[in-house]
Design goal:
With 577 residues, the chain is α+β, with helices and mostly antiparallel strands. The protein contains 18 helices and 32 strands. It is 30% helix and 26% strand.
Length: 577
């Protein structure tokens, strides 16, 4: 077996088992809690008041994988007011003092008491598709939340599908993952976040338990589960990646200059809306890759880097994507499994999901990984690592020749919130730091910093793409950076077609040399050269301010527990302007 049951993990001293895990485990072992398959959860979901059946067929291979009958159609689950993740509802058990823990434990016991008044179901899944990294997970919910159970099984892998591989996988020093979801939770207590009702996302990453109370949004179940998977990988010494990675094989190209490149892998790290999926999933980088290349994708959202064995491993067989850029008739609709918070329309007598965020922001779909073309469950160690940022002071691409600077820029990744998150309009406008583009990290930042430093020390080269626009006359008057420009730059990185010069403002960083980049993108240097910006004094002052913010962010983080590492990172962020 891979991960361990509660008994196997704690049998030498059961007093080590934290209360949240014991409470969840006790609920799961209640004989009245009925275990369901994906097909049974699908049938139950069809009866939910908040689920609508469409006439769009579920992608047939996915339907067969999930045991659904031929002709099964996509379900649309609409959640109501909250249509994104609510970070303010999170509470971290391992960070609580004694009195706070006792309060939350008591409230959790009361919530389970109320939950047991409802018919309950549970389901088992396997996280991870590579035999060397598999974790068993169990989710329990009320019967009238079956759609979240179905989507969870579809997002990951129903246990039965990989039971044989799981039985042969190595035993890991990691507990099985337990997920509890109870949408009907009601409590009047200012301790808990309240937005039309109380909400709690209780996380115990050391015991591999997440409890969602008063939270309908499927993303809470999915990302809560992935949070524990990523953390489990980190506990095993692997870097946790909220990003996409693909491997390009140049050996089939006609020109020798490309064939000698062999296989090269590139990873992208960014929040929703930064181009992470566009960069990962593009089959030819906007027509810029040479003829004859082949591509395999690991995933566009979640994977783990194993520095010891120099491989990357995937967690899930599906994509959970926004549909704002997928109009009716888009070929991606052929790969759909389930949708959430979608409008509906009637076309030729058929009721179909309507994307493009017509009904509300952040419409989402579970999409089969076949959409990516050829995919793999493990791929090569990344040659190239790209941070996707929304800092208007940065040119479209920067190369890092100092590993400390590469890590420091990732640890202080500057971006903006997006509509995948349940935040205020004001928060959507603010620049924020999201280390390594992973809002789901629940352990200390210094652990990620050390893990990614190890990745760079093992041969990866770091880059940064600006995905928002570059300074023209001010922080608001910007030169656009079209996606096609970024895709062209991606191909240039993969094919070594750029030469680089030091960026005098930021020691340890380089920008493309004019002649080499203008050959690929005529006029690039004139448009995006930091030395040619208008209002250069204001630009320099903004650069100084942004990098001061970065240094302050790191200095105020838990990196102070690793003073030597902190000093390296902060020193690397000293600009000269």
């Amino acid at each position: 077996m891979a991960s361990q049951s509660s008994y196997a993990y704690y049998k030498d001293d059961f007093s080590r088992m934290p209360a949240p895990r014991s409470i969840a485990q006790t609920l799961l072992l209640d004989r009245r809690v009925r275990r369901v398959t994906a097909a049974e959860a699908y049938d139950l979901a069809r009866a939910q008041h908040d689920v609508m059946e469409t006439d769009l067929p579920i992608y047939p291979p996915a339907a067969r994988r999930l045991g659904l009958p031929e002709g099964a159609t996509v379900l649309n689950n609409c959640h109501g007011k909250i249509i994104g993740r609510t970070a303010k509802a999170r509470r971290f058990y391992t960070r609580m003092d004694g009195p706070e823990r006792r309060k939350v434990e008591a409230d959790l016991r009361e919530a389970v008491y109320e939950m047991q008044k409802y018919p309950l179901i549970k389901a088992n899944a396997i996280l991870g598709l590579d035999r060397d990294l598999m974790i068993k997970a169990t989710m329990v919910a009320t019967e009238d939340d079956a759609v979240n159970v179905f989507n969870w099984l579809a997002n990951f892998t129903p246990f039965e599908e990989l039971a044989g591989e799981y039985a042969q996988s190595p035993t890991l020093p990691i507990q099985d993952i337990l997920i509890v979801g109870f949408n009907h939770w009601r409590v009047a207590d200012s301790y808990y976040h309240n937005e039309g009702g109380p909400q709690l996302a209780l996380v115990d990453e050391e015991a591999n338990v997440v409890v969602n109370l008063g939270m309908r949004y499927f993303g809470e179940r999915k990302k809560g589960t992935l949070t524990l998977a990523w953390t489990s990988g980190m506990r095993l010494g692997m870097a946790a990646c909220h990003g996409g990675i693909k491997e390009i094989d140049f050996t089939g190209t006609a020109e020798k200059k490309y064939r000698v490149l062999g296989k090269r892998s590139i990873a992208f790290f960014g929040l929703s809306g930064t181009g992470k999926s566009s960069h990962t999933n593009s089959h030819d980088n906007g027509g810029t890759l040479p003829q004859g290349v082949t591509k395999v994708v690991l995933h566009d959202d979640a994977f783990q880097i194993d520095c010891e064995k120099k491989v990357c491993r995937v967690w899930e067989p599906t994509l959970f994507d926004k549909t704002d850029s997928r109009p009716l008739g888009h070929p991606d609709w052929n790969y759909m499994i389930s949708v959430q918070n979608m409008g509906l329309t009637r076309l030729d007598g058929k009721i179909l999901p309507l994307g493009q965020d017509v009904r509300n922001p952040n419409g989402r779909a579970l999409i089969d990984r076949d959409l990516l073309g050829v995919y793999v469950n493990r791929c090569a160690f990344p040659d190239i690592m790209v941070w996707l940022m929304k800092d208007t002071c940065l040119p479209p691409v920067i190369r890092f020749i100092d590993n400390s600077l590469a890590v420091a820029m990732g640890a202080s990744l500057m971006t903006r919130r997006n509509l995948a998150e349940n935040v205020s309009e004001e928060e959507l406008k603010r620049l924020v730091f999201e280390p390594f583009a992973n809002p789901f990290r629940v352990y200390e930042l210094w652990k990620d910093a050390e893990a990614f430093l190890k990745v760079f020390e093992n041969g990866a080269t770091g880059f940064c793409f600006n995905s928002v626009g570059f300074w023209r006359t001010s922080d608001r008057d910007l030169r656009k950076i079209p996606l096609q420009t970024s895709l062209t730059l991606q191909t240039a990185l993969l094919t070594d077609r750029l030469t680089w010069v030091d960026w005098d403002m930021l020691p340890g960083a380089q920008i493309p040399e004019k002649k080499s980049v203008d050959k690929l993108l005529p006029g690039y240097a004139e448009r995006y050269d930091p030395a040619r910006v208008e209002n250069p004094e204001d630009y320099a002052a903004t650069v100084r301010d942004r990098f001061t913010q970065r240094r302050n962010f790191l200095q105020n983080s838990d990196l102070h527990h690793r003073p030597e590492l902190l000093l390296k990172l902060v020193t690397s962020l000293m600009v000269k302007c």
